[in-house]
Amino acid sequence: MEASVSAMSGLTTHPQYPNLVILDHPLVADKLGRVRDAATPNKEFRELCAELATLLAWPATADLEVTDTQVATPLAWANAKSITRVPLLVPILRAGLGLVPGFHALMPQATVAHVGIYRDPDTLEAVPYYVNLPEQLSGWRAFVLDPMLATGASAIASITLLLERGADISDLRYISLIAAPEGLRALFGEHPKLRAYTCAVDRHLNDHGYIVPGLGDAGDRLYGAGAGRVPETAVRAIRRRERKQ
Ligand code: URA
Fold first, then answer.
1. Which residues are within 8 A (CB) of 121 and not within 5 positions of it... i.e. 6 or more apart?
2. How much distance in Å is there from the Cα of 156 to the middle of ligand 1?
3. Cα gap 168→120, rounded to integer Å
4. Around Cβ 19, how many Cβ atoms within 10 Å?
């Protein structure tokens, strides 16, 4: 049987969220199955995250602005194009780091600006504890990277941070491997014009905020349990500052 054109593109949109693109492609499905598998070792997990990120980067960069140029081939001048603006990658610490190599594979010139956000256990609010963004983001095309769109709290907080620094919502792309319906509802409820890309929308969040079936703790599977969590000292410093205000 012949595949339809839309099946051949490997992309679908979500019936509820027209700005959400879901990768529906045999290569993505195969790799996603392997990242979900609890038996996949960390090394392979990291490689698969990078490969999936590259596959997500393909549609997410399809409308990057290009500038016409010319290059000399060994035979003659040829018309060529180059990416006009240096793209910005914004990995949300720490699991977002796992998607950076896949984007860099296609856009080695991309600048990386890290954002760390933790969930206050008392208020459940998303609190930025590390923000290394350019002061002025007007005119930047930015890709916010986090493999798991769970509650949506850190996604909303990171997009809000970018908008506060002058980014235009039409220039932002939110990239995840797996999204929960709860996170999508929250994120698009707050930022309906945001454009997002993911490989799968899963069933639901469990009581601990993990996506089911998901893949477990993406940070732990990338970097090992206990490594690189929000430093306790940073949390204590934020609390001290808040008490003084
Ligand atoms: N973060 C993770 O690493 N996994 C989840 O399932 C949800 C949030």
1. none
2. 16
3. 28
4. 17
Structure confidence by residue, pLDDT tens digits, 163-172: 999 999 999 9
Q: Could you identify the atom of ligand 1 that is nearest to the CA of residue 215?
A: 6
Mean pLDDT of 179-185: 98
Residue 82 has pLDDT above 50, yes or no: yes
Ligand 1 center to 147 CA (angstroms): 8
Q: What angle do CA 12, 157, 60 make, to 5 degrees?
A: 30
C-alpha dihedral, 88 to 164 to 99 to 42, nearest 10°: 140
Question: Which CATH number among 3.40.190.10, 3.40.50.2020, 2.60.120.200, 3.40.50.150 corresponds to the domain 8-65+77-244?
Answer: 3.40.50.2020
Q: How far apart, in whole angstroms, are the C-alpha atoms of residue 140 and residue 169?
A: 10
Residue ranges in 37-99 assigned as alpha helix (H): 42-60
Q: How far is the CA of 155 from the centre of ligand 1 (A)?
A: 12
**For position 173, what pLDDT does the model report?**
98
CA of 217, closest atom in ligand 1? 3
Ligand 1 atom index nearest CA of 214: 6
Report the separation in Å between the CA atom of 5 and the middle of ligand 1, taken as the mean of its atom positions.
Answer: 34
Q: Which residues are near ligand 1 (CB < 6 Å)?
A: 95, 148, 150, 209-211, 214, 217-219
- Tell how far the Cα of 25 is from the centroid of ligand 1, in angstroms: 23
Q: For residue range 154-164, what is the model confidence (pLDDT) as tens digits?
A: 999 999 999 99
Residue 187 has pLDDT above 60, yes or no: yes
